[in-house]
Amino acid sequence: MTETGKKQGRVFSGARPTGRQHLGNYLGAIKNYVALQDEYKDTIYSIVDIHALTTVETTQNLKQNTYEMALDWLAAGLRPDESIIFIQSHVPEVMELHTFFSMVTPLGKLTDLPTFKEKIRQQPHNVNYGLVGYPVLMAADIALYKAVLVPVGIDQAPHIEFTREVVRSFNYRYKTDVLVEPQMKATQVPKVLGIDGVSKMSKSLNNHIELAATPEETQKRVMQMVTDPQRARRSDPGNPDVCNVFTMHKIFSSAEEVEMINTECRRAGIGCVDCKKIFARNLNDNLAPFRERRAAWAQNPDQVWDVLNDGGKRAKVIAEQTIAEVKEAIGLP
Ligand code: TRP
Q1: Is the CB of residue 12 below 6 angstroms from any atom belonging to ligand 1?
Q2: In angstroms, what is the C-alpha Rg of the chain?
Q3: Is residue 5, in this structure, part of any structural domain at all?
Q4: CATH of the domain at 136
Q5: Could you say which of 64, 131, 139, 243 would form a disulfide bridge with 228 (CB–CB 3.0 to 4.6 Å)?
Q6: 114-147 pLDDT, tens digit each
Q7: Element (H or E) spanning 37, and its range?
Q8: Cα of 13 to ligand 1 centre, how many Å?
Q9: Nearest one of 332, 9, 330 to 176, comparing CA atoms
């Protein structure tokens, strides 16, 4: 513990610039970033634009998507005076470490990763070299800042395990202890379903609820949410246990309301329309401070870029130090 009462040890996480964030991004990642900012002295959050290039073929939206995501992070409560928020490519040292890591990584390990196999299924026309190296670059992200804790969704577990292995291999190969093996911090809500109630919430499936949407748009999306599929008529009793709206109520509504809905749904005392109206209202209430902060930052885009540029400078100081130690450890002349 430090004077500020916060824990020592650095937290690092990153996300590809996907533009405006949705509820799934918030519950799965951003909420955790903010909580860890309050808990740890050192928190670094990176918009990983280089990683994005492994899948994005046209970069025309990259700047806008970076800006929109930064805006959402700031609106959600990341504070630039407490966290470093930066753009991955602003600190090119990560590519140096990536190259050094590539020499201690067996190729088979990379091509065996489930995340790689999924990517080649998704984009068989573009199985690029960078895709193979994706986890190596991610390991470099984390190790460059000597992070001890990495908040990510459970789907990233193989990448964190890989990072630990690379760090171990590096330290072993060069008889050093300069790099640190990180721990994963899995987010509380492992999988947020979209409004279809079936698939993981995602922009590409268009089943998402955007954080920055207006209250009216949000209400509209909520009213489209799929509920218990067995409940065809208002007079049918419902089963909250299989209803995504109920899952969301448990996150955004008061204990009394959750209790009421749990009871009334089962005896057809409340219909899905009313249930969703209550959820929409509570969600909008919850998002009100987010929207206010977002509007304030959006008044001044230059300030958002200043945050990112300044974060890049602060990150670079740490990165340069690590790279110096790494080169020394390797024994480069
Ligand atoms: N691979 C991560 C994802 O798709 C993004 C990422 C890149 C990341 N570098 C990172 C996450 C470093 C945590 C730490 O979500």
Answers
A1: yes
A2: 22
A3: no
A4: 3.40.50.620
A5: 243
A6: 999 999 999 999 999 999 999 999 999 999 999 9
A7: helix 31-39
A8: 6
A9: 330
Domain that holds residue 230: 215-295
pTM (predicted TM-score): 0.95
Contact 43, 82 (CB under 8 A): yes
Number of structural domains (the chain) is: 2
Among protein residues, the one with the nearest Cα to ligand 1's atom 6 is: 14
DSSP 253: S
Upper half-sphere CA count for residue 74 (Cβ side, 13 Å) = 27
* Pocket of ligand 1 contains residue 94 by CB under 6 Å: no
Cα separation, 166 vs 254, whole angstroms:
45
Residue at 203 is within a domain: no
Question: For residue 206, is it within any domain?
Answer: no
Neighbours of 45 (CB within 10 A): 24
Tell me, what's the pLDDT at 161? 97
Closest ligand 1 atom to residue 138 Cα is 9
| Judgement on whether residues 57 and 166 belong to the same structural domain of the protein | yes
Strands (E), the chain: 7-15, 40-47, 83-87, 149-152, 183-186
Record the tokens describing residue 39, joined without a space: 């808990």
Name the packing angle between helices 301-330 and 272-298 (round to 10°).
80
Q: Whose CA is nearest to atom 15 of ligand 1?
A: 15
Residues 245-300 have pLDDT tens digits of: 999 999 999 999 999 999 999 999 999 999 999 999 999 999 999 999 999 999 99
**Does ligand 1 have an atom closer than 6 angstroms to the CB of 44?**
no
- Rounded distance from Cα 280 to ligand 1 centre (Å): 31
